[in-house]
Amino acid sequence: MLVGKELLEKSRSLSKKSEDEIARGCGYVGPSGRVLRKSFYRALIEAKGFKIGNSGSGRQGNRSSRGRQAEYKTKVHGNGNLLIGHAYTKKLGIEPGQEYKIDLKKDSKTISLTPLN
């Protein structure tokens, strides 16, 4: 992720692109491929010479430093997909590329994953 003068120069050179394309071009992309807009904008503001403090105080300020927290709930998306997020797989030590058998129990509507290796 670019910062300071390099960030300003790169973002200027990409100024005809969309905001997301500029952020991507400056390296503000998370491990999942999601554009890290807040980090990009904060770095841009700081590169322009403004000092910004913590993004809040008290509980909310603490929360932002911890990242997303697992809620242990999810919902089925409109396209029928059921997403298990990074917070859960990280907590279980599941790595990308690992394979699992999906067991469905229709009567109790439960899904379980069994490692294949």
Polypeptide structure, described:
With 117 residues, this protein is α+β, with helices and mostly antiparallel strands. It folds into 2 domains: 4-66, no CATH class; 86-115, no CATH class. The chain is 38% helix and 10% strand. The protein has 5 helices and 2 strands. It has helices at residues 4-13, 19-25, 37-47, 58-66, 86-92, and strands spanning 100-105, 110-115. The protein has a two-stranded antiparallel ribbon. A hairpin with a 4-residue loop joins strand 1 (100-105) and strand 2. The longest helix has 11 residues, at 37-47. It is elongated and about 60 Å long. The protein starts with a helix and ends with a strand. Residues 56-64 have low confidence and may be disordered.
For the structure shown, list the relevant keywords:
single chain, 117 residues, alpha+beta, 2 domains, two-stranded antiparallel ribbon, 2 strands, 38% helix, elongated
Kindly summarize this structure in a few lines:
This protein is of the alpha+beta class.
